[in-house]
Amino acid sequence: MLSHPLPHQGHPGRVRIWFQLTLDRSCRKVSTNVSRLIPLLFAIGSLLLSACATTAVPDVLPDLDSPSAEARSEPEWLATRATLDDSLSGTHGIDVQAMDDGGMLLRLPAAEGFPRNSAEPTRALQAMLDKVASVLDEAPATTVKVLGHTDSLGSELYNLELSIRRAEAVMEYLRARGINLVRLHADGRGEAEPIADNATVAGRAINRRVEIVVRPMD
């Protein structure tokens, strides 16, 4: 039903005003009705999306009775560590130690392992590294971290830099002997971690060393 009666046809101006008023009121009603429908449409859309959503089901269910990878790797590492220990313990100059975290420490004396102020391994150190490389090659599922150490003669900064260069030289030597670079890491400790008295000649000789830490890959 029209909200305004149609004016007499003899008044064209009034007819235009009537049409304008009627059109405005109709537009306002449509706009009001649409605004009321929008929340309803959103609610319906949300319900449809919720109904369509599904949880992905894996093709293969995990075997709860099967040991985890971590549980399986521990005995494997223990067997590998025992093999490394047996293969290296008898090597002259190499001290093999078990670490508190389960890793293995190979301590190589470097008092005569490098020329003075040099990072070039001597023949004596190369012979030990050849043995280490051959054993590590049989244990590919391990990481190898090389640590360089110096005595306290010279400045602390210089000793740190020298220890890093020596560790990197040992790492490169192992890489050249077939150890994958992905397994290798190198760092230097300088004079910060002595294991003997730096006040004596014998103590300083012991502190000049290379350590190789072997651990299972994560």
In CATH terms, what is the architecture of the largest domain?
2-Layer Sandwich
Helix content: 40-55%
Structural class: alpha+beta
Question: Unreliable runs, pLDDT <50, ≥5 residues?
Answer: 53-72
Order of helices and strands: HHEEHEHEHE
Q: What is the terminal separation in angstroms?
A: 80 Å
Main features:
alpha+beta; 5 helices; single chain; five-stranded mixed sheet; 5 strands
In short:
By secondary structure, this protein is of the alpha+beta class. It has helices at 12-52, 69-88, 123-136, 156-176, 201-207, and strands spanning 95-98, 104-109, 142-149, 184-190, 209-216.
Description:
With about 220 residues, this protein is an alpha+beta fold. The chain folds into 2 domains: about 60 residues; about 150 residues, OmpA-like domain (60s Ribosomal Protein L30, Chain: A). The protein is about 45% helix and about 15% strand. The protein has 5 helices and 5 strands; from the N terminus they run ααββαβαβαβ. The chain is elongated. The protein starts with 11 loop residues before the first helix and ends with a strand.
